[in-house]
Amino acid sequence: MWIPRLVEPRLRQLAATRPVVVLTGARQTGKSALTRQLFPDHHLVTLDLPSEAALAEGDPQAFLARHPAPLIIDEVQYAPGLFRHLKLEVDRQRQRNGHYILTGSQPFALMQGVSESLAGRAAVLQLEGLAVAEIKAVLPDLGASELLLRGGFPELYANRAIDPADYYASYVATYLERDLRSQLQVSHLLDFERFVRAVALRSAQLLNRAELARDVGISGSTAGIWLSLLERGGLVHLLEPWFVNGTRRLSKSPKLYLTDTGLMAWLLGLGSEADLLRSPLLGALWETLVLAEVRRLLAASRQPGRLHFWRDRSREVDVLLERGGHFWLGDAKWSELPRPAEAARLHQVAALLPANSVSALALLCRAPHRFPLGNGVDALPLQELGSVWGLVERDFCSP
Fold this sequence. Notes:
Number of domains: 3
Strand content: 15-25%
Oligomer: single chain
Helix content: 40-55%
Strand order of the largest sheet: 11-12-13-14-16-15
């Protein structure tokens, strides 16, 4: 089953205007499937195959002669020596766009090659897991609990017989054994796995690096390196607080989020709906899903925007999206029928922003459909967020 992706129009537009397009993101987010779906006339080669990776790295000219453009190169980070030769090929045919589509699941290695050799020639697009809007478009009756437990990895929806617990156990083992060993020397993998679980416990909270290191029993410098590894690998997102007048922050610390709720639930040991509904971290899981949804919608949008949260000594708002001097404010609420009183924080923060600059206020909740709460606030289900906030060109709302 093919699930249409929100970024499809954006990816097509970039391929029509740039010689090289780089699609990056964590493993298993659907990069290879998406490029095959959108560019069926391109040849495809994956550097997951050791023989192809060795040829691309050892003899790039022979590799490019063997695989002529238009070409999709999957897991291109395994041949960093290829980037310089791609630059020469692109410069020979600079007027031809979309000739090379590159994918990679290790953004830190991939982006180094892009910035050094393909600067000005390549457009970069980040792909995360499935958005709620994408899932609801094909599975409109899927409940919020299953969304949280399954997360956003496409394979779990293409084949719903897969047990999420088995999937995530394999995913973490693969990440630890394959990607981690190749990128960083970690002497004790069990310590790192405990660190990942400690990060999951803190999703949707202000980041306190010293506390995180102390609870795991590692040094602060090690915690910083490991957290940076998770962030660059696409498993963690650090959301920065809103800056006042571009210089002074209301809060100094970023908020920590895992990028996938299914992975988070598995790390927390939540294997069933009953476990989920009893968990004191249910609200944090829902907020993690809300922030992931906004990030995915924003990545698919052609309009630039800056995503933050607001926090001062007495007020906090989970989502502050600024585009062109206008603000969209949202708070994550697990409730299906939120009450108008729950929007108080939104009004408090909106009153502190410039006059006439706030475009929308919403409680991002489990409501089946959008409805007004009064005083300019909507109860807004996640599958309608993109169309209401103008973040996507294509209607992914469920029927």
